[in-house]
Amino acid sequence: MRKIQLTETILRDANQSLMATRMKFSDFEDILPLMDKVGYYSVECWGGATFDSCLRYLNEDPWERLRKIRKAMPNTRLQMLLRGQNLLGYKHYHDDVVEKFVELSIKNGIDVIRIFDALNDFRNIRTALEATKKYGNERTIASGCISYTQSPVHTPAKYVEMCKELKSMGFDTICFKDMAGTMTPNEAERLFGGVVDALGNDIPLVLHTHCTTGMAYMTLDKAVECGVDIIDTATSCFSNGTSQAATETMYYAIEQCGIETGIDEKLMNKVNEFFKPIKDKYLADGTIDYKSLGTDSQALFYKVPGGMLSNMIANLKDMNAIDKFEEALLEIPNVRKDLGYPPLVTPLSQMVGNQAVMNVLLGERYKQISNEVKNHFRGEYGIAPAPVNKELEAKILGEGKSPVDCRIEDSKRTGEDFKAAEKALGDLAQSEEDIMSYICYPQQAEAFLKRRKEKQENVVKYSIVEA
Ligand code: CO
C-alpha cells in the first residue's frame, strides 16, 4: 500500500506565516504529548524565525524550547529549517560555526534538518550536510531543499539536475520549497513527473508550499498523484492564507484514495480543538492579521511573492511615490534578469524590489546601485542561477575583474568566532548554546542573557531572605 506522510507545521511555519512566530512555548506545551502520538512524519518546530523571535520578543531560550519539546515528544521526528551557510540569519558564517550549530541542534533534539540556499548554490549547503552526517544518529535525516521559482532558466530539466546533485551529495530526502505558493498543478505534474522518471523511487520527495495564492490544495493533490512522498500541512485552524494547507483536509483526501498516512484521525482532530482558542486569542489581540488569512492572487500575476509587494508599496508610500508602483512592478522582471534570475526569497526578494524602485524613481537604470546588489555581483551570496548582466558586472566590479568565490573565506577560520563570542559574553554565557545564540544574534542574545542573569540573581537573593 502506498504511503504519503504529513509534516505538521503549526509550531514553526504556520506560527511564522500567520503570527510572525509570536506563539509562546506555554501556549502549546500541554498538547505536545498528544501530538507525539498522532503519527506525523515529523513536526516542524524550530529554525526559520523561531530562534530570533524567542530571543527578541518572547524572552525564551530557543535551545531550552527545543529541549522541552524533545522531552514532551520523544517519539516524533522534530524538524528544523536551516538556511545553509547562513544558518538562521542572512550572512555567511564560517564552516566551524555551521558545524557547531548543527552539532548542537542534533544534541538538543532535532531529527530532520531541512537545508536550503536562497540561490540554490549547493556549495552553501554542503558544510551543514556533512555536519548532519557527522553528528547525526540513526534517527537523523538530512533533507536537501530546493528554493522553487519560475523563470526562463528554471525548467523541469534544470530541477531534475538539481535533484540529481542533491542525491549524489548524500541527502536522505529532497524537498521543493515553494515559499511564494506560486507552483501550479501543471508545474507540479511536469516537475515531479520529471524527477520521478530520472531518480526513480529510491529517495523520498517532499513538497513544501503555502496557500497564499490559492494554488496549494490543487498543487499538492497533483504532486501526490505524481509521486511526492511527504507534504507539509498545518492543523486546520492555523492553515490557509499565507500558511500551509490543512492537515485534516489533506488527510481525508489522501486516505480516500486508499493511500495510508499513518495518522490517527481522532488525535489529529484533538490537536485542532486545542489550537482553536489560541488562534482566537491572537486574532483578538491583532497578532494574527486578518489579511494573512485570505487569498492573494497578485503573486501569480506579477510573479513576485506577496510579502515583496507589500514591502514595495510601503517603501513607495514612504517616498511619496506610490504613483510609480506599476512602473516599478514592470521593472522587477528586468532587474531579476540582470541579477541572473535569483529565486525571489529573502534576501534576494528585497534586493530586487528595492533596486527596481530605485531604477524607476531616479529615471535612469542603475544610476544608484544598492550595496546588497553590489555584493551579489561580487559573488558574496553564491552563484546566480543564470549568467548576470555582464555590462553591469563590469560597472560594479571594475573592468576585467571576476566575482569572488564565496567559499574561500568561509572555510579558512577555526574557532575564532567562538573565542571572540566567549570573551564578549564573559560570565553571561553558561553553555556552548549561549555562545551560539550570541554568534547568530549578538544584540538579542546578549539582552536575553542579561535578563536571565538578573532573574537568576533575584532568585538567589530571594532564597537568602527566605532562609
Ligand atoms: Co514556508
Q: Which stretches are poorly predicted, pLDDT < 50 over at least 5 residues?
A: none
Helical run tally = 22
Give the terminus-to-terminus CA distance: 65 Å
Gyration radius, to the nearest Å?
23 Å
- What letter string, H or E per element, gives the SSE order? EHHHEHHEHEHEHEHEHEHHHHHHHHHHHH
How do the helices and strands line up, and which of them pair or pack?
Elements: E1 5-8, H1 10-19, H2 25-28, H3 32-35, E2 42-47, H4 50-58, H5 62-72, E3 78-82, H6 95-108, E4 112-116, H7 123-135, E5 141-147, H8 156-169, E6 173-178, H9 185-199, E7 205-209, H10 216-225, E8 230-233, H11 247-256, H12 265-284, H13 298-302, H14 306-318, H15 325-338, H16 348-361, H17 371-377, H18 390-397, H19 406-412, H20 416-425, H21 432-440, H22 442-466
Bound molecules: cobalt (II) ion (CO).
Notable traits:
467 residues, alpha/beta, 53% helix, binds cobalt (II) ion
Question: How would you summarize what this structure contains?
Answer:
The protein has 467 residues and is of the alpha/beta class.
Structural features, described:
The structure is a single chain. 53% of the residues lie in helices and 9% in strands. Helix 6 (95-108) packs across helix 7 (123-135), helix 15 crosses helix 16 (348-361) and helix 21 packs across helix 22 (442-466). The chain has 22 helices and 8 strands. The protein is an alpha/beta fold. An 8-stranded parallel β-barrel has the order 1-2-3-4-5-6-7-8, surrounded by 6 helices. The relative contact order is 0.12. Helix 6 (95-108) links the parallel strand 3 and strand 4 (112-116). The chain is globular and about 70 Å long.
